[in-house]
Amino acid sequence: DAGITQSPRHKVTETGTPVTLRCHQTENHRYMYWYRQDPGHGLRLIHYSYGVKDTDKGEVSDGYSVSRSKTEDFLLTLESATSSQTSVYFCAIGLAGGPGIGEQFFGPGTRLTVL
Amino acid sequence: QKEVEQNSGPLSVPEGAIASLNCTYSDRGSQSFFWYRQYSGKSPELIMFIYSNGDKEDGRFTAQLNKASQYVSLLIRDSQPSDSATYLCAVTKGWGKLQFGAGTQVVVTP
């Protein structure tokens, strides 16, 4: 347990509504990540952050935005949810200190269903 | 071609036998390699990492890396029913990012 919590753990919403998922960490890690996991695709990076207010896009960022105003919190927002965003979302913290390192530790996940 | 490729399985292994999982990657610049275990409905859990060519052993797990062949493997010795899970291979991509394979499902049969 790397001190990572995600909320909510389960959510059902309707197409077109905004949704915000929260990731909270207690160990002051600089690097944080949002992934989605779908059958046959493994984990795909949505957005990541390398510090407060420093974020960047991953490979599947369309339809998602993020914010990080405090070290401990990393928020993922679906501006207008679509059924294709039904997935399990994982937050992770990273121990990155250079290109040759990079262990990541995952939160418990959020199962999101968009009807 | 996927950047990180794994056989999806399921890989059926008798209890007590060795499970052998393979992973190939396309980015020659990748420097660190990780194996995660994921039980159904749970989050991925880091079990091994390896940076240098050769073997690295940790308990019943051995990771093997061959950078020239762009190949990393995981051996699980004396497989137990509790080893039944999906195993994800991950490699570093650029600064601070990981690229994951889709995972290999392992089923250990009593």
The description of the largest β-sheet of chain B is: 6 strands, mixed
Q: Ranges of chain B with pLDDT <50 over ≥5 residues?
A: none
The gyration radius over C-alpha positions of chain B equals 13 Å
Q: Report the sheet-strand fraction of chain A.
A: over 45%
Low-confidence stretches of chain A: none
Number of helices of chain A: 0
What kind of sheet is the major sheet of chain A?
Answer: 7 strands, mixed
Instruction: State the end-to-end distance of chain B.
Output: 36 Å
User: What is the 3D form of chain B?
Assistant: globular
Q: What is the percent of helical residues of chain B?
A: under 10%
β-sheet strand percentage of chain B:
over 45%
Structural class of chain B: mainly beta
Shape designation of chain A: globular
Based on DSSP secondary structure assignment, what is the total number of beta strands of chain A?
Answer: 11
- Describe the oligomeric state of these chains in a short phrase: heterodimer
Structure report:
The complex is a heterodimer of chains A (115) and B (110). Chain A is an all-beta fold and 115 residues long. Chain A contains no helices and 11 strands. In chain A, 0% of the residues lie in helices and 57% in strands. In chain A, strands 2, 4, 5, 6, 9, 10 and 11 form a 7-stranded mixed β-sheet that branches. Chain A is globular and about 40 Å long. The relative contact order of chain A is 0.32. The mean pLDDT of chain A is 93. Chain B is mostly beta strands. Chain B contains no helices and 11 strands. In chain B, strands 2, 4, 5, 9, 10 and 11 form a 6-stranded mixed β-sheet that branches. A 5-stranded antiparallel β-sheet of chain B has the order 1-3-8-7-6, with no helix packed on it. In chain B, a hairpin with a 2-residue loop joins strand 6 (54-58) and strand 7. Chain B has strands at 4-5, 11-14, 19-25, 33-38, 45-50, 54-58, 61-66, 71-76, 85-93, 97-100, 104-109. Chain B is globular, with a radius of gyration of 13 Å. At the A-B interface, strand 5 and strand 10 of A face strand 5, strand 9 and strand 10 of B.
